[in-house]
Design brief:
Elements (H helix, E strand, L loop, with lengths): L1 H20 L10 H15 L2 H23 L2 H17 L4 H49 L11 E5 L14 H8 L5 E6 L6 E6 L2 H10 L2 E2 L2 E2 L1 E6 L8 E2 L11 H32 L3
Antiparallel strand pairs: 1-3, 1-6, 2-3, 4-5, 6-7
Main location: cytoplasm
InterPro entries: DnaJ_domain (IPR001623), DNAJC17_RRM (IPR034254), J_dom_sf (IPR036869), Nucleotide-bd_a/b_plait_sf (IPR012677), Pre-mRNA-splicing_ERAD (IPR052094), RBD_domain_sf (IPR035979), RRM_dom (IPR000504)
GO molecular function, one term: RNA binding
Length: 287
């Protein structure tokens, strides 16, 4: 279980880092492609326990050998180096070289096996990144006609119940809020108030994304969000959102039932995500 959790954290860190250094997002950086390739290779090694163990074994052996050599005084070091040189000349295929060669071959074989077995997983991760970049581009293109006169980007104010003495911040951390609102469109910025607990401001790239968030997002079941417009509210838009559902906005009973089921599924997924993040935070804290 701990290994699966570690791999999930590695993949999550890989996706976050890969988005920032992807060549499509850094067209002016000539090293972006090389850095992205190195990041992919690191993911291949870190997600395979056998390859990582072999790699660590070689590194540990080299480190121990270097430490032993460094502790020797100059005279003993010279004697040691002379003896090793004579042994290499007399025994070109000595046991030490064979052991090191076997370790190197084992590491190369494990890395090659990892490339073959993990290629599909890596391609899937890269496909998801490409899809996310494409969606962000489309959202930016859709957002341009909505803001032709250079008006301020749409911003929403978020409020929820939160007690100052409770460290959980009402169940809403910055990561949880990003998970809730990024599904409506590109989030340019999200700031939690340091002075007033239970308040935050989220800035969207497009007015459409902000409208969808105001109309549909209710937050956590046990602590709903109150969402109101701060800037960029279009004419005729709803001023704030109420936790719960409105039957007046649903055209038929079937649509209403579908919407209720969708909201229930979203709430369950959010609760599961928050519980998982809290467990990971507790596990990461030093004992």
């Amino acid at each position: 279980w701990a290994e699966n959790r570690r791999i999930r954290r590695v993949k999550k860190a890989y996706r976050q880092k890969a988005l920032s250094c992807h060549p499509d997002k850094n067209p002016d950086n000539p090293r972006a492609a090389e850095l992205f390739h190195q990041l992919s290779q690191a993911l291949e090694v870190l997600t395979d326990a056998a390859a990582r163990a072999a790699y660590d074994k070689v590194r540990k052996a080299k480190k121990q050998a270097a430490e032993r050599t460094q502790k020797l005084d100059e005279r003993r070091k010279k004697v040691k180096l002379d003896l090793e040189a004579r042994e290499r000349q007399a025994q070109a295929h000595g046991s030490e070289e064979e052991e090191e060669s076997r370790s190197t071959r084992t590491l190369e074989q494990e890395i090659e096996r990892l490339r073959e077995e993990g290629s599909r997983q890596l391609q899937e991760q890269q496909r998801l990144i490409q899809e996310q970049i494409r969606q962000e581009r489309e959202q930016r293109l859709r957002g341009k006609p909505e803001n032709p006169e250079g008006k301020a980007t749409p911003k929403l104010k978020l409020k929820w119940r939160c007690k100052k003495e409770v460290e959980s911040d009402g169940g809403y951390s910055r990561d949880v809020l990003l998970q809730l609102f990024q599904k409506y469109g590109e989030v340019l910025n999200l700031v939690l108030s340091s002075k007033k607990a239970g308040t935050a401001v989220v800035e969207f790239a497009t007015v459409k994304a902000a409208e969808l968030a105001v109309q549909n997002e209710v937050g956590l079941v046990n602590n709903p969000l109150k969402i109101s417009w701060l800037e960029g509210q279009p004419q005729g838009a709803v001023g704030f959102s109420h936790p719960g559902l409105s039957q007046g906005s649903v055209r038929s009973e079937r649509d209403y039932e579908s919407l209720v089921m969708m909201r229930m599924r979203q709430a369950a997924e959010r609760q599961q995500l928050i519980a998982q993040m809290q467990q990971e935070d507790k596990a990461a804290q030093p004992t």
